[in-house]
Design a protein that fits this description.
mainly alpha; two-stranded antiparallel ribbon; 6 helices; 52% helix
Length: 176
């Protein structure tokens, strides 16, 4: 059983993450597309491993590498939708997303690693392309999460990239 993560991770916009090593405040938003692609490439390599090992949880309360990869794929998809809302609307409120419910409903641990790798890479490319289309004053457009956390497109880009980098660290131990 996975204990839901209720931590407010927006603190990564203020200081480097001691766990994964990513200095999120120092990330240039324009660098995020390349970082998304590089992260997806690392997941693709990881997902080429033994399927049984990819499904194995290190502890019952910790996601398996495959479950983490499914989560990252879905984060890329979700953030592309939210980015579109920010670029197309005025200060939109993001629909809530229960990542733990998504993992259960999506049966993350039972998915095919090769399919997850392909879908994760495709979602990363779509998101990277969307961020590459941002320019000028668009970086200052805003959106608000269901819990009231406010983002500009620039802070949203930095906040986003911490998630897949941190999760790759969770699985590999390699610092970002």
């Amino acid at each position: 059983m996975i204990t839901p993560d209720t931590k407010d991770w927006t603190w990564v916009l203020e200081r480097a993450c001691a766990d994964c090593g990513l200095d999120t405040p120092a990330v240039a938003p324009e660098a995020v597309p390349g970082m998304v692609r590089a992260n997806a490439a690392a997941w693709t390599v990881l997902l080429a491993g033994d399927a049984a090992e990819l499904r194995r949880r290190p502890r019952p309360e910790v996601w398996s590498p495959l479950e983490y990869a499914c989560h990252v794929r879905d984060v890329f998809r979700l953030f592309d939708v939210r980015l579109g809302l920010m670029l197309d609307g005025d200060d939109p409120a993001f629909p809530n997303w229960d990542q733990d419910r998504a993992a259960v409903d999506g049966r993350y641990g039972e998915q095919d690693p090769a399919r997850v790798a392909a879908d994760l890479a495709a979602a990363a490319e779509v998101l990277a392309h969307s961020f590459e289309g941002v320019g000028g004053a668009q970086w200052q457009r805003t959106g608000v999460r269901g819990d009231g956390a406010r983002f500009t497109v620039a802070s949203f880009a930095r906040y986003l990239i911490h998630d897949p980098v941190h999760h790759l660290h969770d699985v590999t131990g390699v610092r970002g």
